[in-house]
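Budget justification aside, the reviewers requested a transparent look at the raw inputs and outputs of the sequence design task funded under Objective 1. We therefore reproduce one unedited record. The lines immediately below are the structure tokens for a 609-residue chain.
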């Protein structure tokens, strides 16, 4: 039995397909060719011989894909008589009428990819449907057919693309580095490998094997992409509501990522980037993982075909739903239910003991002699039981305002502190694992531990940025990074180094970190710090502004967190560093660091004055 035949789309259909400049970068070619290969494997008509073992797709690139891309499959092949049509615009075997567009099941349907690629590169196709003795061959370079013929070939299709953008020097000049593009393509291939676990994928970069999946099941593909530990820990999801189903694998709460790059959602088996779906996933995880961390998921969302419009985006990567709320709700509930069902009781975390190097190195205000060494109270302070908390809370609210710069011009009499400097203080304890409570000469101080530490680090980093800011790691750290981030690391390598990060791409899934800015906890998870520094670098703003933001970002990531129990030594260390800083000191993001309850105010509130 023959494979599906190709036909030119009638004009009214061609006009309806959301066209666009499909090929902007080598990754776009890989995406189109891999989608064709998947279609060729899955849309194999009944009765066509299946290959022995799982079907296979091999992707090979050189020079970041600009030099060479080859995608080979063992799918249905192209009928030799149709090869010319396959390379013509708006010719497809996947769509015939406008009605078909309502229920497309294939990844491709516009009949645009092959001709678009052949117009801007040298493209060769060799294809052999199973029932044919030999393959058909065509070579087209920059829109011109060079050769056609028959030749021996394995079953399936091999498409090779060389010298991409060779006729478009301007486009060529704006391409990313080969390493960065290879990382992007690695991410793409991983997406399809996870999305189509029944297909064996191999990905070869510059002659080196970068990824191989075994064509078994989703957990098998997860082993290849995220490693055996992540694959083993992944939670299975299955839920159905009103004709919408969600099924796949998701990370447990203790396995998180620094970016949303590993959230993979497929709608009717099409990988999509949809903000609302992404939001539903993040909402599903809310409270289970820290803000700013992301899960990895591979979820198939199945919707009745007539209820989803796949024709809304030129690269077909977004979709629209008829019953969108039902889809988002089902997704969010599916995730939440699994998290609740598998959650273990929260562990009691031990207080942080002082890791002095990272706390102390960028000391803003070093005081070597403790000021109230003997008077330290280590027992946690109890909240007073007040019948009417009104006046006390009232004063606190006023005080919060008091430390803002706008108000410092006219400080209230009770709140004035000589020179706006924080006085020496006696530590009373920590409350809510978030605030350090101290007594100073004229009142009680509440110090936001995270903001304060951030401030101390920030000032230190601002002072010694540049080369001196780097601390060489004793042993370079190899960290796992999402492919999208790897590309950015490659691109911003120098800028990162200028800020103390010596980070370099290491294979297709890892980066190697040799130094971090002083003040950054070298034992912590470095990936989110690097990711947010890149975010800050990429955000369009004045350079000095951007630098400031990078420093603030580093400080924020390295500081003790709101909610970390602190050992007394660590509190003391922090307060010593803070004593003598400006009381207007704000955390670099603009929240106050210190709130003071003046002694005078306390007396007033108790009716003593
Ligand atoms: P579309 O995928 O939108 O149909 P393409 O330009 O990508 O358009 O491909 C044109 C046609 O060429 C497809 O409809 C299909 O019939 C055929 N084709 C492309 N690649 C393959 C492949 N790997 N195996 C079998 N047929 C293919
Ligand atoms: Mg296609």
């Amino acid at each position: 039995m023959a494979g599906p035949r190709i036909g030119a789309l009638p004009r009214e259909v061609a006009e309806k397909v959301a066209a666009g400049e499909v090929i902007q970068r080598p990754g776009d070619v890989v995406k189109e060719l891999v989608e064709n290969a998947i279609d060729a494997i899955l849309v194999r008509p009944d009765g066509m011989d299946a290959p022995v073992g799982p079907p296979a797709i091999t992707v090979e690139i050189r020079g970041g894909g600009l030099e060479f891309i080859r995608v080979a499959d063992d799918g249905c092949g192209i009928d030799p008589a149709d090869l010319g049509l396959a390379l013509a615009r708006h010719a497809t075997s996947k769509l015939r009428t406008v009605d078909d567009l309502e229920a497309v099941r294939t990844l491709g349907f516009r009949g645009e990819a092959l001709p678009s690629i052949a117009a801007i590169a040298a493209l060769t196709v060799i294809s052999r449907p199973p029932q044919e003795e030999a393959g058909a061959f065509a070579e087209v370079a920059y829109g011109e057919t060079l050769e056609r013929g028959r030749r021996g070939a394995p079953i399936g299709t091999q498409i090779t693309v060389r010298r991409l953008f060779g006729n478009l020097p301007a486009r060529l000049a704006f391409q990313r580095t080969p390493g960065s593009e290879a990382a992007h393509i690695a991410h793409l291939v991983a997406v399809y490998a996870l999305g189509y676990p029944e297909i064996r994928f191999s990905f070869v970069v510059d002659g080196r094997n970068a990824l191989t999946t075994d064509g078994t099941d989703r957990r098998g593909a997860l082993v290849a992409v995220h490693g055996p530990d992540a694959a083993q820990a992944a939670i299975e999801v299955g839920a159905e509501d009103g004709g919408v189903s969600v099924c796949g694998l998701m990370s447990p709460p203790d396995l998180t990522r620094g970016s949303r790059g590993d959230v993979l959602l497929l709608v009717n088996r099409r990988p999509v980037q949809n903000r609302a779906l992404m939001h539903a996933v993040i909402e599903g995880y809310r409270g289970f993982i820290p803000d700013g961390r992301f899960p990895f998921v591979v979820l198939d969302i199945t919707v009745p075909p007539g209820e989803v419009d796949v024709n809304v985006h030129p690269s077909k990567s977004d979709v629209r739903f008829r019953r969108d709320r039902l889809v988002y709700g089902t997704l969010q509930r599916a995730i939440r239910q699994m998290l609740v069902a598998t959650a273990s009781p929260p562990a009691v975390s031990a207080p942080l003991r002082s890791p002095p190097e990272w706390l102390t190195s960028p000391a803003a205000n070093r005081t070597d002699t403790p000021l109230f060494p003997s008077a330290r109270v280590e027992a946690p302070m109890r909240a007073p039981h007040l019948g009417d908390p009104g006046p006390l809370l009232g004063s606190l609210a006023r005080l919060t305002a008091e430390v803002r710069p706008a108000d410092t011009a006219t400080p209230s009499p009770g709140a004035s502190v000589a020179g706006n400097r924080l006085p020496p203080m006696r530590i009373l304890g920590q409350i809510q694992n978030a605030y350090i409570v101290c007594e100073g000469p004229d009142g009680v101080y509440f110090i936001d531990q995270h903001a304060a530490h951030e401030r101390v680090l920030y000032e230190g980093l601002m002072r010694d940025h540049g080369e001196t800011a780097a601390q060489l790691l004793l042993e370079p750290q190899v960290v796992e990074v999402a492919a999208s981030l790897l590309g950015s690391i490659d691109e911003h390598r120098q800028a990162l180094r200028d800020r103390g990060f010596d980070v370099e791409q290491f294979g297709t899934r890892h980066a190697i970190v040799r130094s971090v800015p002083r003040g950054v906890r070298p034992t912590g998870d470095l990936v989110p710090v690097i990711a947010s520094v890149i975010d800050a670098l990429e955000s369009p703003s004045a350079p000095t502004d951007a630098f400031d933001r990078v420093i603030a970002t580093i400080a924020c990531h390295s500081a003790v967190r709101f909610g970390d129990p602190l050992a007394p030594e660590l509190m003391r260390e922090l307060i010593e560093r803070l004593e003598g800083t400006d009381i207007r000191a704000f955390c670099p993001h603009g929240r106050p660091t210190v709130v003071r309850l003046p002694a005078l105010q306390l007396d007033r509130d108790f009716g003593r004055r």
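Residues 344-419 have pLDDT under 50 and may be disordered. The first strand starts at residue 7 and ends at 8. Computational costs for records of this kind are itemized in the attached budget.
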